[in-house]
Amino acid sequence: MRLTGRGAVAFRDAKVVTGPRPDTGRLRGAGVPVLVLLAGRSRAHDVRRVAARARRALPDAVVATVPGVSHHSMPDDPTGEVGRRVLSFLAAAPGAPATPPAAP
């Protein structure tokens, strides 16, 4: 049996709880490629503001919005768009193998 989260559906009026913002100074100095994927239907944050902030803080990062998914549905994205974007990002990273592994 597969279990899925129902919080966003069952508690539509509940306040969304978020964690602390990532330390962009540490990310900027890490010397690794950064992918910022945002949920187009997120109730956790304003997607445009977060994208703009990420672009200012991490100008070399790839910042993208995945339309049609919420903050909670991104890990279980039925369209496969999240996985495609992650695999594409990894394939373009320095030192990536010429033939990336197939998506599961």
Describe, in plain words, how this protein is organized in 3D.
- The protein is of the alpha+beta class.
- It is built from four helices and two strands, in the order ααβαβα.
- The chain has helices spanning 7-10, 24-28, 47-57, 81-92; strands spanning 35-39, 62-66.
- A two-stranded parallel ribbon has the order 1-2.
- The protein is globular, with a radius of gyration of 16 Å.
- The mean pLDDT is 79.
Note the main sheet: 2 strands, parallel
How much of the sequence lies in strands comes to 5-15%
Largest sheet strand order: 1-2
Number of strands: 2
Tally of separate helices: 4
Shape: globular
Question: How is the secondary structure organized here?
Answer:
Blueprint: H1 7-10, H2 24-28, E1 35-39, H3 47-57, E2 62-66, H4 81-92
Brief description of this entry?
With 104 residues, this protein is an alpha+beta fold.
Which labels suit this protein?
104 residues; alpha+beta; 31% helix
